[in-house]
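Researcher: I'm preparing a figure for a lab meeting and need a structural model of a single chain. I don't have an experimental structure, so a prediction will have to do for now. The sequence is pasted below. Please return the structure as tokens so I can convert it later.
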Amino acid sequence: VIYFPANIAALAIIFGTQTVSLFGVNANENKLMIVGIAVGIATFVTLMNFLGAKAAGGIQMVSTICKLLPLALIIIFGLLHKGDVPFQLFPIEAGANKPFISALGSGLLATMFAYDGWIHVGNIAGEMKNPKKDLPKAIVSGLSIVMVVYLLINIAFLMVMSATALAGTDTPASEVATIIFGTMGGKLVSIGILISVFGTINGYIMTGMRIPYAMAIENKLPFSKWFATLSNKSIPYNSGVFILLISVIMMLVGGFNTLTDMLVFVIWIFYTMTFLAVFILRKREPKLLRPYKVPLYPFIPTIALVGGLFIVFNTLFTQPLLALCGIGLTALGLPVYFIMRDKHINIQKEKR
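Model: Understood. Here is the structure written out token by token.
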């Protein structure tokens, strides 16, 4: 319930930042304008989703096609670009007041946001003909493609701009596109990026509004009847309004980096517990039927667990305020969980 609004808020802020940059407005001096655009685009996309799943699906299809074009153009022409900037990966600068390991952990928070979303493939496992084979393939192939694309586009960025220059801008793709294609070409690529972000916002809203609805159907939320209400087009519009309101609040209180770092930190706490659960369940229930088994056990789960623990504990030590805020927001759900659990137990007792 918090994870999706945080993603929507962060992406909407990026949309606002990209929009003001497109029109030559200084993003650092117009934060209020960016937030206004962010609220507007999130509201617009939510209303579009209220028109029905077909409309939302159409938006997703068009934006998916459009998002590939600017990425492909930047990668191809960026790699071929011959400028005065030497391509350089080393030495790696950790910053004036941070050891290298701490800086690496902080950088991972930002990087992991780009890869997040892979777990949502599991939501459609029930619609797959052969999830035992298709689900692992979808996750591995999807992440592999994303890794290759992000690696290539970052190499392209570094062929055009120095690492220092890239670190100092909120709109690296637009600035790289402007250097490669000129002002007009850069603006066209920027529009493509806006369409890409628009589509991603749509995807999170389309999926996110169904989370409170699904929980409400199982009576896991207060006011479940309200959250479970559907429109005449079978859209959970009350859940959509709730997700939008939480998203807007997050836009008002946090910037892009704060929101993404916080949500990645929180979600990686749960990912890490999942990695640990693989070991526990293998030992506790060795004969349990497992349609899918982690290959190369215990090596792959061990690598995942160590990586997860590093991200979580590094954030706790290097960004304690952000970590505590993330844990605090997550902990707000505990009273709701216990209240609804006890209510469910009492209902079951009454039925007996």
